[in-house]
Amino acid sequence: MADARVTVGPDDRPAPPPLPVSRPGRPVPRLRFRPVSRLRTAWGRGGPWRGTSERRAALARRAAAFVVWYVRAVACVNLLSAVWVSLGQDVRRHNHADLFTPYLLTAGFASGVFTLFLAVTLRRRKRAAWILNLALAGPFLVLLGLAMTLPEVRRSPQNWVSLVLTAAFVGALLAGRREFYAVGDRANPRLAAALAAGGLLCCSLLAALLVTVTNQAPDAARSTFLERWHYGALRLVSVAADNARFPGIATPNGVDVAINVLSTVLLLAVVHAAFRSRRAVDPLTAEDERRLRELLARHGERDSLGYFALRREKSVVWSPTGKAAVAYRVVGGVSLASGDPLGDPEAWPGAIVPWLAEARTHGWIPAVVGAGEEAGTVYARHGLDALELGDEALVETAEFTLEGRAMRTVRQAHNRVRRAGHRVRIRRHEEIPAEEMASLLERADDWRDGATERGFSMALGRLGDPADGRCVMVECADAEGRLRALLSFVPWGPRGLSLDLMRRARDCDNGLIEFMVIELLRAAPELGIAQVSLNFAMFRSVFERGARLGAGPVLRLWRSLLSFFSRWWQIESLYRANAKYRPIWEPRFVLFEKSADLPRIAVAAARAEGFLEAPGLPKWLHRRHLASRR
Fold it and tell me: Does any domain span residue 31?
């Protein structure tokens, strides 16, 4: 394989620091450059060549790491105390005897979940989480310091440990303040306040209803609904209630626990609304789309997935010169890019760096799905790691043939469908009349499997748009002239096509899709098409190597698991369907920063592709990003 190294263009390269000047009798100090992966926080604050010294930056990073690990440790102790009865009793006894445990250590399941949530937000460098912890830990440290002036409190060694740990935490918060730079949405405080008010009202009414239904007090008739509502609200707010104040109320422990769990869920929902990342930025504008099409006209043949960057739900980040761009979509706090960056490879770093900076500014997890090997190499130089996701099937039309024993099955299927009277029609979208295109859209919707239009990295997400006139439609009709299936391909440079849409009638003949693909490959020279990209086969190498003689037990087990899940997600069937054409397999990669982010990236990719539907907020609570930014 040729060397995939990419040089940075002069206009897309960050300005280097000034060269050191030698003094008489002293040697010139050697320049020391940090790798780009170590500059992630600096990029998020406006560039790596700021005046902050390396020592102070390293101190801030270590302080931020201490903050995160402290909250993680406290979360573990809180959760462990919830299941380890003796440990929980010791911690509570120490807290209730006018003494103090370290910050956030309360030995409860609810507090453990809350602390764990804080640890996650702090690890993602949320500025709001830093503010909340400083607002809570600062007064707590002052209170603990005042309590240490009392002789009976000062005599306890545990209190000194609490004071030192809390002081160290507050000091680390202050020292690492620059590391917590991820900003949230401006609408988060209003949303959290509305959710807190509305949630408290609804949950308190539900708690009052539970108390009313399960009240076991002998004089329950004397308790009014207002008293039961008051009892439920106190349980929600304080996780406890003074039973002496409510003589007419006696509820089972299960009801009290249920109300406490309800309060924990409400608290987490409010905190999540206050800390959540911005979900998206401005979608593609008409000007962005025009510039992207210009890049595709000049460099579109480099990547078969380049045209899918024109999905209008995506956002785009440009290099300073406008020679390259990264198209992405934010899903569940993940900034998800797909395919290679668009444009000149020498300008790719100029678009990758601001994309990573924007992700870190908003607390998003950067990830790329479906990147090629050359782009993966460039992304890796900017701190991302790579994992092979699968292979893309590419067919060179000049070398495709149905001759030979290896193509016997495909040849027989093609001849069988042709003898049945099926015929194929191939046209550009711009050649299809509007009325006929509307009919094709209607049939495509009828044949869609499910209500959700699936696809993100290898799908355009629309059909029949006038701006996509160079796309190619392949229609197949039976002997009676009825439309039975259709394929749509997007341009891949001037001489290539990439599969976008595949729809067929549920009662169509077997081998119909193979017949259409073969007819397209045969007609490709007349259309000026030299290469065609078909479906993507996930984990292709596992199926291929796992079936070979001498495959190891781990590889065989992995292949068996994928075959099992193929019953629902068509993993193996896509590989088999593509392998019929004897294609060239091009590897595709998923790129990520940390291995711990892979589960979240997988969920975000599944949501983007349409395989998972996440419950969202009501439409009237959705934020209007475009209006707020303008």
Answer: no
State whether 269 and 319 are in the same domain. Answer: no
Whether 579 maps to a domain, the answer reads yes
Instruction: Looking at the structure, tell me whether residues 316 and 218 fall in a common domain.
Output: no
**pLDDT score of 453 more than 70:** no
Q: Are 502 and 489 in contact (CB under 8 A)?
A: no
Structure tokens at 396: 């060179």
**DSSP 8-state secondary structure symbol assigned to residue 322:** S
Q: Is the confidence at residue 21, as pLDDT, over 60?
A: no
Q: How far is CA 102 from CA 155, 198, 417, 420, in A?
A: 16, 33, 75, 79
Instruction: For 37-47, write each residue's pLDDT tens digit.
Output: 333 333 344 44
Burial class (CB in 10 A: 0-12, 13-18, 19+), 254: exposed
In angstroms, the CA 600 to CA 555 distance is 25
Instruction: Please tell me whether residues 367 and 398 are part of one structural domain.
Output: no
Query: What is the radius of gyration, based on Cα positions, of the chain?
Result: 31
Residue 262 and residue 199: Cα distance in Å, rounded?
A: 10
- Domain tally, the chain: 4
**What is the identity of the amino acid at 386?**
A
Q: Is residue 127 domain-shared with residue 165, that is, in the same domain?
A: yes
What would the pLDDT profile of 341-398 be if each residue is shown by its tens digit? 999 999 999 999 999 999 988 888 999 999 999 999 999 999 999 988 888 889 999 8
Residue 421 sits in a domain whose CATH number is 3.40.630.30
335 and 199 part of one domain: no
Helix then strand then coil, % of the chain, to nearest 5: 55, 15, 35
> Both 316 and 404 in a single domain?
no
Domain hosting residue 404, numbered range: 393-588
Q: Please, which pLDDT band fits residue 613 given cuts at 50, 70 and 90? A: low
**Spatial CB neighbours of 311, under 8 Å, sequence gap ≥ 6:** 284, 327, 329, 456, 459, 460, 461, 462
Q: Let me know whether 345 and 462 are in one domain.
A: no
Residue type, 482: R
pLDDT at 214 over 60: yes
